[in-house]
Design brief:
Blueprint: H1 4-14, E1 22-25, H2 32-39, E2 45-50, H3 54-61, H4 66-77, E3 86-91, H5 97-109, E4 114-118, H6 123-126, E5 138-141, H7 147-153, H8 157-163, H9 173-186, H10 190-199, H11 206-221, H12 227-240, H13 260-272, E6 276-279, E7 298-301, H14 304-311, H15 314-319, H16 330-342, E8 354-355, E9 364-365, E10 367-371, E11 374-380, H17 389-397, E12 402-407, E13 412-417, E14 423-430, H18 437-444
Parallel strand pairs: 1-4, 1-5, 2-3, 3-4, 11-12, 12-14
Antiparallel strand pairs: 6-7, 8-9, 10-11, 13-14
Helix pairs in contact: 1-2, 9-14, 11-12, 12-13
């Protein structure tokens, strides 16, 4: 089952006694519609609406009581109101602010129905001062396929079973690494993964990547506020994937002549699509997390495969033994961030990284993870403990003694010591175990 992780989360939502309409967030082409259609197989009835279609949007636009809207909805779909468990999927809901406002009544007056909504640029309706009914809906974020879902898609079901054991067998280390390198190379976009699963040919994927990037540009342009902003957005989409995982500046981004203010606003628009996220650094080694918005942000994009395609470095990844050796280690860092996001479906799940407070300092820890009132540093790096200098500097000021290193080596827990003599526990995780990082931290805390 290709999207089994998200299907498990959807089943949890459906089983809640006080279930609310679900707003599914995620970039285009990450498989939202496919997952919901698969989920619908467990219901007696399925009603699917796309509000880009006028004939379906008009159902929500007429002025009539909510009870009449429900009658119209079921008549339109050719279903019966008393026909058993019914899943209602409202796609592209951003095209009807009125439909958004009506979600509260599905919760208050028709809670027997299971209602899921999705759409691109949902924040665009909030800019028009229309928001989702507070306290009457809940949210779920959907990302590209995780490594486990990639294994399922490529018919490696037994490996997934082994990956979910309390102790992952060490003799499978090389096999897991081999498959993770393939995952880090092509990424997790469902259409790409499906094609790769069919023919195992990386060279056949270029057309799909190009089509995805082109469709993103076409989609976002619909929401641009001016002809000039269309140009800025097109420029960003054309260049942004090459800079994935790197720190960016807005002024003259992508070797353009565009000013910082113009590009920053266009970046904000592209961020709304969940295609990218500007991740600003934190300088404290303890909670709360306070990103420094005056510092250069690091650019996280929706999928690592799009970076590799845009940079034309897939061949490097295939032939390099260590993922960390490709593109200055950026690809290894980025795919780890992608796995950290995919492991949690909460929309509040975000990436953070750490730098020293001095503006001219070079010390930087790839990720920091809030865990049990602590900020756990995560460094993505090969080599000996002594080479993890930034992580050591973080631990000097951290009020705890736990750190994580993600690498191609085998699972290992060891003691380490900072330059000042502070002892701490270093959890060394292979790439393929990033999704269960909190489970592994539980064992050592």
């Amino acid at each position: 089952m290709f999207k089994r992780d998200i299907l498990r989360e959807l089943k949890k939502w459906a089983a809640k006694p006080n279930r609310k309409p679900l707003v599914m967030r995620g970039a285009r082409q990450v498989g939202k519609t496919t997952a919901i259609e698969m989920f619908s197989e467990g219901f007696d009835q399925y009603i699917s609406l796309n509000l880009e279609k006028t004939s379906e949007k008009v159902i929500f636009e007429k002025e009539y009581p909510f009870s009449d809207l429900l009658t119209t909805l079921f008549l339109f779909a050719g279903k019966k109101r008393a026909g058993g468990r019914t899943l209602v999927f409202i796609d592209e809901i951003q095209n009807s602010p009125k439909a958004v406002a009506l979600l509260r009544y599905f919760y208050e007056e028709a809670n027997d129905l299971y209602v899921i909504t999705a759409g691109s640029l949902l924040e665009s309706i909030m800019d028009r001062k229309i928001s989702f009914p507070v306290g009457r809906v809940e949210y779920m974020a959907m990302r590209p396929c995780s490594f486990r879902e990639f294994l399922f898609a490529t018919d490696n079901h037994q490996l997934v079973e082994m990956l979910e054991k309390p102790e992952v067998p060490g003799f499978l280390h090389s096999q897991f690494l081999s498959w993770f390198k393939k995952y880090a190379t092509i990424g997790g976009m469902p259409e790409v993964v499906n094609l790769y699963a069919q023919n195992a040919d990386i060279t056949s994927l270029d057309e799909v990547y190009n089509s995805l990037i082109h469709s993103y540009s076409d989609d976002i342009e619909k929401y641009a506020s001016s002809a000039a902003q269309v140009q800025y957005i097109q420029h960003i989409i054309t260049n942004v994937f090459r800079d994935g995982g790197s720190k960016v500046t807005f002024e003259k981004f992508g070797n353009s002549g565009y000013r910082s203010r113009e590009i920053k606003e266009a970046f904000r628009m592209v961020e709304k699509t969940m295609l990218i996220k500007l991740v600003y650094p934190c300088t404290s080694a303890q909670l709360p997390i306070r990103p420094g918005l005056t510092r250069k942000p690091r650019l996280h994009v929706v999928d690592t495969g799009l970076i590799n395609h845009s940079l034309k470095i897939m061949g490097n990844l295939v032939f390099n033994d260590d993922i960390s050796e490709t593109h200055r280690g950026i690809i290894a860092e980025h795919i780890v961030g992608q796995e950290l996001l995919a492991s949690n479906y909460s929309i509040s799940n975000e990436l953070h990284f750490w730098t020293r407070e001095k503006t001219d300092a070079t010390a930087e820890v790839d990720y920091i993870l809030p865990y049990k009132s602590k900020l756990i540093p995560i460094e993505v790096k090969s080599g000996s403990i002594g080479k993890l200098r930034s992580l050591h500097q973080f631990m000097e000021s951290a009020p705890h003694t736990i750190a994580v290193r993600v690498y191609q080596g085998e699972y290992l827990v060891q003691k380490a010591r900072t330059a000042s003599g502070k002892e701490f526990t270093l959890l060394n995780l292979p790439f393929y175990l990033v999704h269960r990082i909190e489970q592994e931290l539980e064992k050592i805390t």
